[in-house]
Amino acid sequence: MASTPLPTAKHSLPSLLHAQTPKTLLSRKLPNLPKSFQSQFCGVKLSHSSNFAVPSSFKKSSILAKVSKGSVAPSFSLKDQDGKTVSLSKFKGKPVVVYFYPADETPGCTKQACAFRDSYEKFKKAGAEVIGISGDDPSSHKAFAKKYRLPFTLLSDEGNKVRKDWGVPADLFGTLPGRQTYVLDKNGVVQLIYNNQFQPEKHIDETLKFLQSA
Amino acid sequence: MLKDPILKSKWYHRAWVASGCTTVLVSLAKSVTVAADSGIWLQPILAGLVGYMLADLGSGIYHWGIDNYGDENTPVFGSQIEAFQGHHKWPWIITRRQFANNLHTLARAVSFTVLPIDLIFNDPVLHGFVGVCLGCIMFSQQFHAWAHSTKSKLHPLVVALQDAGVLVSRSIHGAHNRPLYDSNYCIVSGVWNELLDTYKVFEALEMILFYKLGVRPRSWSEPSPSWTEETDTSSLIAES
User: What keyword terms does UniProt attach to this protein (chain A) (predicted)?
Assistant: First the structure.
């Protein structure tokens, strides 16, 4: 399948001092698209306060989103792939990468899970834990984790309650659960949010880059 | 030389192709004559171009649907799905089919679609669109066959049109005919393939259908043997 490499947006710390609209990724080769498509296809990274102007695709979600950069992530308790209840508070004291994905055993989610698996040692070296969350039940997670030898925790957000609580935006006019990743610091404060539905491996690149530079 | 009779054209294949061509030619003739009478040329020509572009897009969507969903027992589309499955298994057979044998299914659909339009409407812009669009759809199976052929066996004009991107090229379509059969679905000019694949349009549609209806497309799994190209075809070649 043809894929055009896209440039990444750069956000530097000094930007916190200036009002700056986070740039969505643009490709010179492909025609201009509405911003709502750009975020889904090219990815949007928020690593500064949402008080600043955001692209129109995020305006709706930033009003509704309860979790944004700088806020303490709301706690949750969900069942993992072995049926054990796991709380977010268990991970306090170390950075956590919480990634919300649409569904087990779909091409994008499989690519993403395998990419997290392949870089898991690097995440551990950065002191971080990785948690994947989707609406699938524990038995689906167990089969998915076993098939692809996933070494990290998968949680069942049945009914998508946590997804809604965190305000993860849906894609394609609400027809598809969004693919959004949060990096929490050791105090449980959100430091990075990355959204990209159709380039799942980028979630690993972006979060690892952030953790390694922190 | 293959002696399998189902590759030859039967009289009713030729009849359907004749009727399909007639309806399309009538539509194009109406477009030209009414346009000439009223002196407008640009809109019917533009409508024809739009028809050519949409035929390519339509071919891709239809092809994607048939390749990924349903099976030989699906109502209405079952025989088509079986035919596409056979094509993935033995892609070279399309180059051995006689012309009407190859096109008759599409020609039948085109006949039923275009005939009422021919009878009811006289608008040159509508006929410009319909004649070109449905004509390209009917002949898409011929363009498809040419895309499976080798350069040496094709007329130089066909090769030139393929190289120019007017007709789907052998290399672009070749990229579809290998596992997981999940790209390059368009088979008129193939002009939409890059856009559809770059923006993962079909992947998005597949995700929506999976999430809303729970149906998995075939292209998400390693293709079953019944959908994969069979490399040993010695049993199909009759002794000459």
Answer: Antioxidant, Disulfide bond, Oxidoreductase, Peroxidase, Redox-active center
Q: Which amino acid is at B108?
A: R
Asked if the C-beta of A147 comes within 8 angstroms of chain B's C-beta atoms, the answer is no
Helix (H) or strand (E) holding A115: helix A107-118
For chain B, the residues whose C-beta falls within 8 A of a C-beta of chain A are 182-183, 194, 197-200, 203-204, 207-208, 210-212, 220
Question: Exposure of A198 by Cβ count < 10 A (0-12 exposed, 13-18 middle, 19+ buried)?
Answer: buried
Interface of A with B in 150-179 (CB under 8 A): 172, 175-177
**Residue B224 predicted with pLDDT over 90:** no
Residue A94 has what DSSP assignment? S
Q: Where are the domains of chain B?
A: 20-213
- The complex scores an ipTM of 0.72
How many whole angstroms separate alpha carbon B203 and alpha carbon B209?
10
Tokens at residue B239, please?
């002794």
User: Is residue B141 exposed (0-12), middle (13-18) or buried (19+ Cβ within 10 Å)?
Assistant: buried
- The catalytic residue positions of A are 109
Q: What residues pair up with A195 in beta bridges, in sequence order?
A: A44, A180
Q: Would you say the C-alpha torsion B36, B42, B48, B51 has a positive or negative sign?
A: negative
**In whole angstroms, what is the distance from residue A190 CA to residue A167 CA?**
13
CA–CA dist A40, A157 (Å, integer): 22
Summarize pLDDT for A15-43 with one digit per residue, the tens: 333 333 333 333 344 455 565 555 566 67
Q: Kindly give the pairing relationship between strand A96-100 and strand A180-184.
A: antiparallel
Q: Is there a contact between B93 and B87 (Cβ–Cβ < 8 Å)? A: yes
* pTM (predicted TM-score): 0.78
CB A104 within 8 A of CB A136: yes
Q: What is the DSSP string of chain A?
A: ------PPP---GGGGGS--PPPPP--SSSPP--HHHHHHHH-EEE-S-TTS---HHHHHHHHH-S--TTSBPPP-EEEETTS-EEEGGGGTTS-EEEEE-S-TTSHHHHHHHHHHHHTHHHHHHTT-EEEEEESS-HHHHHHHHHHTT--SEEEE-GGGHHHHHHTPPPBTTTTB---EEEEE-TTSBEEEEEE-SS-THHHHHHHHHHHHH-
